[in-house]
Every structure is written in structure tokens, then in C-alpha cells.
Design goal:
- By secondary structure, the protein is of the alpha+beta class.
- 56% of the residues lie in helices and 7% in strands.
- The protein has 30 helices and 9 strands.
- It has helices at 3-7, 19-30, 35-51, 58-64, 72-88, 95-101, 106-124, 180-185, 219-225, 236-243, 265-285, 320-328, 337-344, 354-370, 383-396, 410-419, 431-442, 455-465, 467-480, 484-490, 496-499, 507-521, 528-545, 553-572, 576-591, 603-629, 641-663, 669-687, 693-716, 720-747, and strands spanning 138-139, 142-150, 154-161, 167-175, 197-201, 206-212, 216-218, 298-301, 305-308.
Amino acid sequence: MNASSASRPLGLVPVSSSTQFQELWELWKRNGQSCSDLVGLVKADLQRRFAQGERPAVAAYLSALPALRDDSNWVLSLLYEEFCLLEEVGEAPSPDSFCDRYEPWRDSLISQLNYHRVISQAAGGMPRLPRFPEPGEYFKTYHLRSILGQGGAARVFLAENEALGRRPSALKISANRGEEPSIMARLKHRNIMEVYSVDFDEETGLRGLDMPYLPGLPLDQILQRMRLTPPEARTAQTLLDAIAPEGHTVNLAQPGWADFPGGSYVDACLWMTANLADALAHAHDRDVLHRDVKPANILISCSDGPQLFDFNLAHDPHTPERAESALRGGTLPYMAPEQLRAFLDPNHWDDVGPSADLYALGLVLRELLIGTRPEAPPANVPLPRTINDLLDVRCAGWPPTRIDNPNVPYALDAIIARCLAFDPSDRYPWAEALAEDLRALLQRQPLIHEHNPSHRERLGFWLYRNRRRLVACATTALILCGGIAVALAGKAIFAPENVAATSVSPKEDHLDLGTLLYERSQRDVFSEQKARDFRSDATTEFRAAIHKNPSTLKAWGVNLRAYHGLALIARDEGDEKTFEQMLARAIGSYEAPGQADVLDLGLDEWMREHRPYVANLYLQKILMANGKFEPLLRKTQIRSKEAQNLAVELRGVLQDVKVALRYAEEASLAMRIDIHWAAAYTYGLILTQATDGDDRDRLTEEFEAIVARALDQIEDEDSQGELNQFTQRFNRLRSELSSWDKRISQLD
């Protein structure tokens, strides 16, 4: 991909003249302009055309819509879609011949297609589910009373063990497969279901796990009970009411519920998830991965709180033979990307670690908060395509939870986003870290392992933590003034249910607040530590202000200033690399919309308004490049290898110099003087390393032309003082150049 196409926003790519591609592109422009949206539209178009008897190739889409090539994961997904569609109509080529059509992606595609065959055959030959006993029947010495829960490959019964005086048990009956009994025998944690014993029935091939009967319901049934109450209208009591089966109540006096927060539904969800993270931490410490965390495998007991169970897959990774069983049991929609990828290429099984359980737990928490389970593809979609579609969803990323439930704090959204990161290395490093952040948020404390992006929310939490001291001080002052009534009214500000309400802030507010905080960091009255704190908070606000997929001029303008703010902070902290990156992104935010015909959005006016601002950005970029060279101007280093390399770098900046000079035409006189002087200085530095006569003549000519243009502009402004000052600066620069030439000739 060339540089121009790389910098062009996705929504502005050229398209083929084909009417079909043009319509597809126009639809994409109206529907968000993200790469995942484009891939979804292309897949829908492929499926429609195949259904009509056509046989389109992905190659045509890649040629007409170059944005599709920006991410190899999306390309592979589309190629896999084409292969599956060909297979479904009975025209699938061999994996080798298909991969020959797409040589750039051959290595990544070949193993996936070969394993596709294996998993399709395995799924097609899956044995029928065993016949489970019915309530009223017996399993060994257990009299089965009723069904407590069921999944794709197991049933849990309320049973009475007649060999032990009709003791009530929760008896899980499944096929005799996997190592669940031996695994659960090693785990002893207050949030992991205990196993008393295991019984085998050789005649039926079934296995029964005897577990304590704890009145309560699986989380999937609890979610179903709450479905009529919108998540934003739920309270902790809503959850408690949904937990208890008929004839039972939740006993908050029991140890399993001792620290239940009550009040807020969001807090109740935090508490439950933190306990489940504790359970996973206990298992992971013993090298046990659950691999099947989902609401159906979480019991909320009326006496013991959250209980994680069903470790049947802990040491039995999903082989092709288990894939369809996992789909029937509702496991696939909760799987991490690396688990799904391992279905399609077994070489990825080594990538499945503890963070896969945290991904699944993040999806469970998200479902609790928004009331909607992760969507699974239709049952009639072939299994390999189902897995690939689920992988696409994860690659596209999950939308913020706050969109569906505004009661969710920004801090919690950040925690969930960390759990649901596509790359395992970007998630929480261990389950304890997730539990610590959940409990920190529950107590309105700063997060330990993640960053709360909302400055206002952090301020609200600080006010809540210090509410007693603040209210006491305020009350004392108000009493002295006779304002007792005001003091009583003021207490409501610090109530827990009002804290989240302080966190709502549009992008522009984040930008304004970040700018204010950065300006405060520049004041001499503050200590260096305080200035660093202001810069840290400003960084948070600038990042929160940035639009991930800007599609309007207003959004581009916000990004321009936010990235510039991040660049200034990086400069102040001596982080040269980040300074360069943020400065480039700021400039890119200005130049991106210039690639499209968006004159109807007021592009000309917008460009003129921001051009002086961007001219200043280019000035900073040029000054930074010049600043690297200045220490080498001493006699002993003027001919060093480093000086030669930096001169080459400066030649690469000349294009920026020309753009800055062009943009400076609409800037203030002072800005024009600074840019012309910096530009001339750049040429002067390059001249110190220029040895070719023609090259030196050209550079000198450019240098003098810049000086002449600057002097002409100053004269046009009729500013004699500025003219004298500028002339003196350039005369000094000429003198320095002459001095450098003499030094170089002496060295030569």
C-alpha cells in the first residue's frame, strides 16, 4: 500500500466504476465507514449473489475497495467466506487450488482450509446426544426429583441419594468424558461448586457428579427472569428477587453474601463478577483453565452466592469432535478469539491461556449490564462459517456498554474493554488483577491495573470517598453563615447513586477540560509533581476526546487539537517518539478530509480556519528536526557520521518545510517570520553536509529565496521594526553558515 492510500480515511477510498460496487460504497458511507461494516456489507453481497446463481470472487471486491486490504484478518475472513459459499453450492475447489488464487495470503489460508475439512467431517459425524433419565427415574442410588438446569451435553437434577439417607444433591449427569471429577477435586474455593463423589453407569455410558444442593438458579435463568426490566431501571433488589426459586429467599446474613453492596444494580454486578474472578484466580493458580465460562455454568446460590461449576472442558480443549457439542451448549458465543481461531487452525491451541477465561467473564459481565447475550449465528449456518462469523465479531470489537446502559461508569466500560481486547496480551494479565479493579471501582477507589478515562468521574469518586470530611467542613462553614438548609441539600451530591451521573461528557467537553488542565500544568506556581498530575489528567481527557472513526469536520477538528495536546505533553515529558507520533496524527487529522469531495460539508471554510493552526504544528515538527542537529555544530562533530545521517533526515523534512511555508501565508506575521526562519535554518543545516557543487547551489538558492519572500511579506505589512529584527536574524544565520563552511574546509 502506498503512503497516500495509507493516510486516506477508510470512507474515502476510490471505487470501481461498477454500479454494484458504487452502490455498496455509498451504502457503507451512510452506515458508519468502519472496516468491519464494509466487510459485513461485502459478505452480505456475496451471499445474495451466490443465492442468485452468480459466483463472484473476493478478488473483485479487493480491487474495487482497497480499504479491505488494510487488515489481513478481514481479508482472510472474506476469502474463507467465498470458500464456504462455494462449498455450500457444491463447487468448492481443493484448498491448494483455492489458495493459489490468493497468493499473498496463501500461507495463512492453507492450514485454515485444510482444518476446515476436518472440522466439517467431525461435525457431520457427531454422535447423537445420549438418552438422559427423566425426573422420577433413578440414576444408580439417586432418585431424580426435578431438573435444575440443562445444557448441550449435560443435565443437572435435584436428586436424593438413598444410600445416604435421602440426602438432597445437585446431580450433574453427562457422558463419561473429560476429566471434570479429578479437576474439581483439586479445587476448593468458596465460589467454586464442590464435588462430593462421582458415579458411573457402564450400561448407559453416563456419569453422575454429586454436588451440594444449593437453592438458587443458574445465571442464564436469572437473566431470563429479569428480561422485562430494562437494565438501566434495575436495582440490586431486582437481582435478588430473580435469584430465589419459589419458596426460597436470598439470605444476606450468610457468609457468601456478607459483603453484598445492595442499592445499585451496577454495584451488584461488580460484586458478583469480582467473586467469579476470585474463583478463576484459584483455578488458574493450580494450572486449571475453565474454557467454558458462561451464564449457564454460574449458579447464584441463595446461601453461598456465585458458584462456578462445569469444568468439563478444563483439560479437554475443543477438538473438532467437540465443536458441535460446544455450539449446542451455547459455549461458542462466549469464546475468546484465540479459542475460535484454534477451531480453524489447531496450531493456535497453544495461544489459549487464562486470559481466554477472562474474555468470557467479560462477556458475562457485559450481558449482566445490558441484558443482551452475545449473538450467535443462525443454527442453519454450517459450523465452520459459524466459528468464522463469531471471530469476525471479536475482530470488529464490542461497542461500549454505556451505549445500552448509561448507568455504567466509564471506569467499568474501560475494565470490560480490557477484558474483551482481541489480543490476549492486551487483556488483564491475571484474574486477581481483574478482581482488584472491580473491587476498587466498587469502593469508588482509583483503578489499579486500568485507567479511568473520565476526569469528571474520577473527581466524583474522590468527592464520594471524602464526602464525610467535605460535608463536615461545608456544614461548619454554612452553620456559621446560617445556611444549614443548604448544607443538608448539598449532601445529595455525594450519594453513590449520583456519582455516575457526573461522568457524562461529550467529546468537546473532554477537549476543553484537557486544554484547561494542560494550561494549568504550565503555571510556575505549581510544583513539578502537581504539574505532572495535571499533565496526566490532561492526557486522559485528550484521549477521551478523540473520535476513533471521525466522519465529520467537527470530529476531525477535535482530533486535531486533542492529538496536538498529547504531543505537547509528550514534549514536556521528554518523550520524543510519542511527540512525533502525536504531532503526525494531529497533522493527519487536518489533511485526511482533504482527500474527498466533501465541499458540501464546508471543507473550504474549515480548511482556511484551521490552516494557521496546522502551520504551527509544522513549525514544531521542523524545530524538533532542527533541534536534533544543533548539538553537532561543534567543530569536532560537524563531520561525524551522526551529522551526516541527521542531514539525510532533514532532507526528508523539506517537504514539510514547503507545506509549512504554504500554510503560513494565512498565519499571523509573527508566525510567518518564525516559519520562514526555521525553514531557512533547515536548509542551512543541510548545507553543512552538502558536498556536491550543484546540490549546494540549489540549496543556497532555496535558502535565499525563503529569506527574500519573508522580507517581502514584512514590507507588505509595513512593519519596519519587524523588518529590522528579521533581517538581523537572517544576517546572523548567514554569518553562522559562513563560519560552518570555514570550519568544514579546515576539517577537509
